[in-house]
Design goal:
Layout: H1 3-34, H2 38-47, H3 50-59, H4 61-79, H5 88-96
Length: 99
């Protein structure tokens, strides 16, 4: 294994892990905010502008769907009393146009 291949694999590994960690954080906070979590709404307002959240949702959309499934849809399947709604438009409206 040459040095170039060695560094390529380490950089690729670091990028994949960074995507997974940041994607989990964004998906957890967005899922909590979509269900009315006041702390999640405050956290998003503090850490993101409209454009930053918009691009984060686009970049981490697969993680967002996976996180929403694991945190909201799967538990509601077993409990039958939680109503889940994946609605990013209403989240953006509540976060940035609710002045």
């Amino acid at each position: 294994m040459t040095t170039l291949v060695f560094w390529f694999f380490h950089i690729a590994y670091a990028l994949i892990l960074t995507y997974l960690v940041l994607g989990f954080i964004v998906s957890f906070e967005v899922s909590a905010a979509m269900n009315g979590g006041e702390l999640a709404l405050k956290w998003i307002r503090k850490h993101f502008s409209y454009e930053e959240l918009y691009w984060s949702v686009i970049i981490f959309y697969p993680m967002l769907k996976l996180g929403y499934f694991l945190l909201e849809e799967l538990p509601s399947f077993f409990t039958h009393n939680i109503h889940c709604q994946f609605d990013l438009d209403s989240l953006f409206e509540e976060l940035f146009h609710h002045d």
